Structures are given as C-alpha cells and as structure tokens.
Amino acid sequence: MIVRILGSAAGGGFPQWNCACFNCRGVREGLINAIPRTQESVCLSADDGDWFLLNASPDIRSQIESFGPLHPGKSRTTPIQAIVLTNGDLDHCLGLLSLRENHRLVIYATESVRRGFTDSNVLYRTLQRFAGQVTWRTLKLGVEETMLCADGRPSGLTVKAWAVPGKPPIHLEGLISPSDPELNVGLRFRQATTGRVLAYLSAVGRITPSVYEGLEGADCVMFDGTFWSSDELSAPGFLEKSAEDLAHWPVGGQGGSLSMLSKLTAPRRVFIHINNTNPMLREDSAERKIIEAVGWEVARDGMEVRL
Ligand SMILES: [Zn+2]
C-alpha cells in the first residue's frame, strides 16, 4: 500500500491567510525552521495505479497537481477512483465542489455525512449536472468492505469505518444532533494481499476505548495532531474555545494523546491535521523533540509511507 500525504495542515493551512501567530508570521518571513503546509488530504493505492483520496480539501486542485500519479493519463480521465470522507467539515468537503468539471465522482461517506453535505445545499447542484454524476457509497460503522474502483473493479483495498468522538461541522451546528455516531469516523484500510493496515483518524475529540480498538494491529497510524495544548487558541485570544471544545484532543501534556497512545506498537506513527499554531511544526522546537524521541513523526506535504 502506498500512502501519500497531499496536505498535512488543519483547516486554514499553514500559514493561514488571516493569521500572524508566531508560526504563521515566522514561516512567511523565513524566521523559523518550518515549512508551509496545505490542508489535510491523503491519497492511497494498493498498486500505484488506482488511487483513493481521503478527504477533499479546499486545496485539492494544487494537491492533485503536486503528485504525478494523480494526473489524467489521456483525454479527460482521472486515476482517482473515489473520495472517502472522514467527516463533513468544510475543510474535508469543499474540494468536492472543485471537482465539478462534468466528471463522474464516487464518494464513500456515512449516511449522516452525505446528508450534511447534500441536504439544502444549493451548491451541491453543481455536482448534479447530469444524472448519476455522483455515486455515494455508504460507509456503515464497523463493517469492513472491499473498496471498489469507479467502474466497480475491486481495488485490492478494504475499508472499515468506526465511530470516533467528534462534533458536527461548524455550518451544521444547531441543525443536527451532536451525538450522532456517524458524524466523525476513523478509517482502517487493509491491503488484501499483504494484510497491511493503515489506521487514519484526523479528528479525535476524546480518546475512548473505541479509539484504541480501531488502532489495534495497524502498521501505520495517522492521528489527530491539531493542537499541542488545550488553550492553544484561547491563550493568545484567537478563539474562546479549548482544543477539546473543537473536538481535537491535544497532543501534549499529561493526558494528551502522546502519553495516552504510548503503548501503541505501530511501526509508523504520524501526527496529521496540524494547526498552524502548533509548536510541533517547528523542526527545532522542544515539542517536536518530545514526540520524535518516542518514535512519532509530524506529517508534511509530500510525505510517503509504504506499507
Ligand atoms: Zn497562525
């Protein structure tokens, strides 16, 4: 299995257009040891020919252009067989509207995520230019299924979604139930021939027994690295909300994900979906040293993992 990180930042990217935090200003002006990052999206393939996108970020156009194997081979085609959504956040769905060029799309999502994107969304009509433009394939919690290419061929990969604590997307707050288990999922991808497993959880609101279960036996874990600390946005006065309020369990400190996941044995452990305020982004920071000392990595755009 080939896993390629197209974008590794949380919503807003790094740097973020309206942010002059220490990291954003530092990376713009070349004052810190860090590289820019686009918003979280990953693609994976069993055999280097058929590709699946995990989440469709607002940066999708440049992300596809950044990676040759995603380019069309001839005429108007694409090696991208389907897009898999982990939740309905705009940072994960907005890119779908950029894939509107009269092309058939296949999207894997839970029924709740599908409804959140399609119901009462007048912009979704741009993906209904002809009958059958979008095929939705429903992810059912706890069910492992073969991932099919756009034309129905088996891809050599399976997917299993499981419920992970999250919250409704901001644009649906107050409109849908915040306790719906289908709002936010972790995904396990398994290659049929080798049995190798990627566990992908880019939004984790709380670390529960179910989170641990989904990580079991994975060869690679990509985990929510949004915030280092709970007050990362509130302390500098950016937003009166904690990391936990935003359904992203912080990495650092006592009870942070780094310590709660210390027993994890996956050979590759990667933090992804990193907010621009996170000190882990600086390659020479104390926080980066702490996570690297125990074998974790910080995702960057263009990173590739072969399982
Ligand atoms: Zn910033």
Describe what is shown at a glance.
Helices cover 16% and strands 24% of the residues. The protein has 307 residues and is α/β, with parallel strands linked by helices. It has a seven-stranded mixed sheet. Strands 7-8-9-10-11-12-13 form a seven-stranded mixed sheet.
The fourth-level CATH homologous superfamily is Ribonuclease Z/Hydroxyacylglutathione hydrolase-like
The kinds of small molecule bound in this structure are: zinc ion
**Percentage of residues in helical conformation:** 10-25%
Number of strand segments: 14
Instruction: Give the mean pLDDT.
Output: 96
- DSSP helix count? 7
Percentage of residues in strands: 15-25%
- Shape call: globular
User: What name does the CATH topology carry?
Assistant: Metallo-beta-lactamase, Chain A
Structural class: alpha/beta
The poorly predicted ranges are none
